[in-house]
Structures are given as C-alpha cells and as structure tokens.
C-alpha cells in the first residue's frame, strides 16, 4: 500500500457541509443478495435506491428508518457493514470472517494486493452460512490491468467461489478502461455480479465514466472523520453510485489519535458507546457503507453493534467540523 502522496491528481472543491443523509442506520444483513426491484424512492434519498429493513431509535426517542442493506444500481443488495481484510494473515483472516459471521455480518472486503483471497475463500466456505448469504468484494490491481480477463478468472480461482459479488478497480492506472470493460464482460458472463471503482474522485470520474457502458455500482474511497470527502461523497451519491469508506477508523497503524479524539470521546460517552461505534454510525448516517478491519472478534462484534443509538444533527455537525483533509494513505 503506497503512502506516496501526489502520485495522481486529487480534487477537493472545498469543504461545504453537504452531508448526504443516505440512510440513517445500518445493520449486518444476512439476507439474499439477489437482484431486487425493491428500493426506497430515490427522490427521498437523493441518490442510489436503498432498501429499508427496519426501524431504529434516535437518542431523543424519535424513531428513524434503519436500512440494513442498500440496493446497488446493478439490482443486487449489499450489506451496509462488513469486514476489511487488509493486512490480515491467513489464519487471522479466516478467524475474523468466522467472527464476523457469528456476530451477524455478511460483507467481506479483500483485494488481489492483500494476498489473502485464498484465506477469504476458506473463511467463506467454512463460516457456516450459505455462500448466497455472503457478499464478497475483491479488486483488480493496476499491474493486472494488461490481462484483466485472466486476472478475474484468477480471483475466482483463488477465492474458490462461483461468483464475486462486487469487483472493483483498485485505483486508476494504465489500461483501467480496458480492465473495466473486462469486468463488464465478466458481469455479463455471471462471474461477477456488480462492478465498481476504488480511489476515483471527481476529476477521475468525469473523465472515466464517458468511456464505459456500465455506471459503477459503488466507489470505495478513504473516509474517516479527519478525511471526510464532504464534496466527493454527495457528488458520487448523486450519480446513483453507493459510496463505501476504506480506513473508516483511520487505518491500521494510523488511528491512535482519531480513536482518542476528545470530541468523538465526548459524543461516545453521551451515548454510552465506543468511539469506533460513533465513527461507524456517523458513516452510516451519511449513507456510507463501512468495512472496518479487525483481527479481534470483540472489536468485530462491537463494530457491527451501532443500532441502539442515533447521532443527532448537532452531533453530526460537530463531527463534520473535525474534517482536516488529512489523508492517511493512498491505496
Ligand atoms: N481500496 C483501497 O485502496 C483500500 C485501502 C485500504 C484499505 N482498504 C479496505 O478498507 C479496510 C479497512 O481499513 P483498515 O483495516 O486498514 O483500517 P480501519 O478499519 O480504519 O482500522 C483498523 C484498525 O482499527 C482497529 N479496530 C477495529 N475495530 C476496533 C474497535 N472496535 N476498537 C478499537 N480498535 C478497533 C483494528 O485493530 P484490531 O485488529 O485490534 O481490531 C485495526 O488496527 C481494509 O481492511 C481494506 O479491506 C481499501
């Protein structure tokens, strides 16, 4: 994972507080990920249709809608919370997937460059729930873009599963349009259900989208309270594309200051929850799918458990004010 800033252009258009309330709660979703026509009225959410699955309660007792899954523009449902597997070795990765599933989570994020697609496959096959209940994301790395059809087949082989729920291009690079077209072919062939992008921002999307047929189902970018993407998130959501945040807790090895932040600690204490739970809830109330990474079953269960409270508008505003455009990594 590179830390070299400035390897590619990155656009920020200012920090206007245009927080999109895409779904006001989220939960682990064990249901089907079959295509579904069911969705909330996009005019109500202002972006990709999302399926209401239940209700939640605001801190002041006011009930608010809770969404446990989003319906992607491909028609498939996706859980709104999951597990990131970056930097997890084989045994840890399998154990974390088992812990996720035991706690009710169903979404798993990996990538070719994490060198653990085989472990993710084992975790999926041995976790005790049917494959169809799980949602597996992987990504093609730019050094695979020259032979993307073979790379997709290799991912399926390493994962040892019949289809990939969501495949992303890991970040822009030479041959990315051709690689995306290969993912379009894989989707038509049933090897991949939904396709999308990672580390694409406004300028990159403006240039990329006119070159491809399929609107990405999802864009996965770095998002945490110190790097909020207050302009990029609504821009992507307004295209009907779901936004997913990587490094939601600031990133493995980079999160000590964030998890000790006094404002977040104050909000967490007010609700009797942890700082990670506040951060993950904040993401969900912005309509952002989250994939916190963890090797710790207690953390995994805690990170899924964000439904007993809601952040007030005032608390959302206080967290918005923490943004300091502090990118913790590139890829
Ligand atoms: N597309 C991309 O370019 C890209 C780049 C980076 C990452 N990603 C994806 O995003 C995922 C998330 O990133 P990440 O895993 O690096 O960072 P992260 O989710 O921001 O943070 C993970 C760190 O937080 C800790 N943690 C998790 N839950 C906790 C809790 N409840 N209390 C205290 N600490 C907690 C973990 O430690 P423990 O292990 O001790 O729980 C780990 O050190 C990755 O796993 C990967 O799937 C994508």
Give short descriptive properties of this protein.
12 helices, eight-stranded parallel β-sheet, alpha/beta, binds NADP nicotinamide-adenine-dinucleotide phosphate, disordered N terminus, 331 residues, TIM Barrel, globular
General description of the model:
The chain has helices at about 40-45, 90-100, 115-125, 150-160, 175-190, 200-210, 230-240, 255-260, 260-270, 275-285, 295-305, 315-320; strands at about 50, 55, 65, 70, 75-80, 80-85, 105-110, 135-140, 165-170, 190-200, 220, 240-245, 290. The chain has about 325 residues and is of the alpha/beta class. About 50% of the residues are buried. The chain binds NADP nicotinamide-adenine-dinucleotide phosphate. NADP nicotinamide-adenine-dinucleotide phosphate binds near residues 247, 276 and 299.
Brief summary:
Helix content is 32%, strand content 16%. It has 331 residues and is of the alpha/beta class.
Report the CATH architecture.
Alpha-Beta Barrel
Number of domains: 1
Number of DSSP strand runs: 13
Low-confidence stretches: 1-58, 61-66
What CATH first level would be assigned? Alpha Beta
By CATH, the topology is TIM Barrel
Average pLDDT: 85
Strand line-up in the sheet with most strands:
6-7-8-9-10-11-12-13
Give the percentage of residues in beta strands.
15-25%
Which structural class best describes the helix and strand composition?
A: alpha/beta
Number of helices: 12
- How far is the N terminus from the C terminus? 5 Å
- The sequence of SSEs as H and E is HEEEEEEHEHEHEHEHEHEHHHEHH
Percentage of residues assigned to helices: 25-40%
Radius of gyration: 18 Å
Give the overall shape. globular
Largest sheet: 8 strands, parallel
**CATH superfamily name?**
NADP-dependent oxidoreductase domain
Q: What are the bound molecules?
A: NADP nicotinamide-adenine-dinucleotide phosphate
């Amino acid at each position: 994972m590179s830390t070299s800033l400035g390897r590619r252009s990155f656009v920020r258009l200012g920090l206007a507080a245009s927080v999109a309330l895409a779904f006001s709660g989220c939960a682990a979703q064990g249901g089907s990920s079959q295509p579904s026509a069911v969705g909330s009225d996009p005019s109500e959410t202002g972006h990709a249709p999302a399926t209401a699955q239940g209700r939640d309660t605001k801190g002041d007792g006011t009930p608010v809608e809770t969404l446990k899954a989003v319906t992607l523009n491909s028609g498939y449902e996706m859980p709104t919370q999951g597990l990131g597997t970056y930097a997890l070795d084989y045994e840890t990765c399998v154990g974390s997937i088992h812990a996720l599933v035991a706690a009710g989570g169903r979404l798993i994020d990996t990538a070719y460059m994490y060198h653990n697609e085989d472990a993710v496959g084992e975790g999926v096959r041995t976790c005790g729930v049917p494959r169809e209940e799980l949602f597996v994301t992987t990504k093609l790395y730019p050094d695979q873009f020259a032979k993307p059809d073979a790379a997709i087949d290799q991912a399926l082989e390493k994962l040892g599963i019949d289809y990939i729920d969501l495949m992303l291009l890991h970040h822009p690079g030479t041959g990315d349009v051709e690689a995306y077209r290969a993912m379009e072919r894989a989707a038509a062939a049933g090897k991949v259900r939904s396709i999308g992008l990672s580390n694409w921002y406004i300028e990159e999307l403006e240039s990329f989208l006119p070159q491809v047929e399929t609107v990405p189902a999802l864009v996965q970018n770095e998002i945490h309270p110190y790097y909020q993407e207050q302009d990029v998130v609504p821009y992507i959501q307004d295209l009907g594309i779901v936004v997913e945040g990587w490094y939601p807790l600031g990133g493995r090895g980079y999160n000590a200051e964030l998890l000790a932040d006094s404002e977040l600690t104050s909000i967490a204490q007010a609700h009797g929850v942890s700082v990670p739970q506040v951060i993950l809830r904040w993401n969900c109330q912005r309509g952002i799918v989250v994939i916190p990474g963890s090797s710790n079953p207690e953390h995994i269960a805690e990170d899924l458990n964000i439904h007993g409270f809601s952040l007030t508008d005032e608390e959302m505003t206080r967290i918005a004010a923490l943004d300091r455009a502090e990118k913790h990594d590139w890829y």
